[in-house]
């Protein structure tokens, strides 16, 4: 079975509808995808209905914006297959709220230099609840200020280190996020471990049995890094996932859906894995 366990839609970071994501996943030969919109599970039920129609297995969940307080670094935690998703609504709402507030603060800064309006940006949210830099950039593209979503203008405005309009959103302690996922009966998997230099945290969490898996195949993971991550996963009996972090036109780097796949047999191991507290 072929599957990409890291996909986003318009409900968060992505540019595609749920319908298009599922249609093109099946058309591209995938057997399953992980729908993990950032800080929301709102699209999972619809995705499952459409997935059954197209013969595509949907692994529902979310990607949470977490934080490693000891090292003061971001960390992304994926949740898969929560049995009681309503128990995650609290952290979803909190994280969406702080990111949306940061988005509006960035918009105010951009509006000082560019004659765009909040109404124009709002029309591009496409069902999502969080205003993001991508929505502002699409507006600037509409008005002819740039022809690139992620080009020089994006970097000048929104680079996390040097962007003149960037505002960081507060993230939640990774251990609290993982605890909430397990309380909801879900599986917790660390995503983007190399992007955020999270190997130390990965080992700490894995050694204590707090993690269920780690993403070992993704755009930011080199073949050498994949071997390192695979070794850690084997050492602590973690599920090994793979995913493209697919966001369509909103992607930082252009990778089509299914560019990075979950290793064979790992989805089956995920379903067989005991849930915390059971």
Features:
eight-stranded mixed sheet; alpha/beta; 278 residues; 10 helices; TIM Barrel; 39% helix
Give a structural overview.
The protein is an alpha/beta fold and about 280 residues long. The protein has helices at about 20-25, 45-55, 90-115, 120-125, 135-140, 150-160, 175-185, 200-205, 225-235, 265-270; strands at about 5, 30-35, 55-70, 75-80, 170-175, 185-190, 215, 240. Strands 1, 2, 3, 4, 5, 6, 7 and 8 form an eight-stranded mixed β-sheet that branches. Helix 2 links the parallel strand 2 and strand 3. It is globular.
State which percent range the strand residues make up.
Answer: 15-25%
Write down the overall geometry. Answer: globular
Radius of gyration in whole Å, from Cα?
A: 18 Å
Spans where pLDDT lies below 50 across 5 or more residues: none
Q: How many separate helices?
A: 10
In CATH, what is the class of the domain at 3-86 and 185-272?
A: Alpha Beta
Strand tally is 8
Q: Overall mean pLDDT score?
A: 96
Distance between the termini: 28 Å
CATH homology superfamily name of the domain at 3-86 and 185-272: Metal-dependent hydrolases
Order of helices and strands: EHEHEEHHHHEHEHEHEH
Question: What is the name of the CATH topology of the domain at 3-86 and 185-272?
Answer: TIM Barrel
Q: What is the helix content?
A: 25-40%
How would you sum up the major sheet?
8 strands, mixed
Estimated structural class: alpha/beta
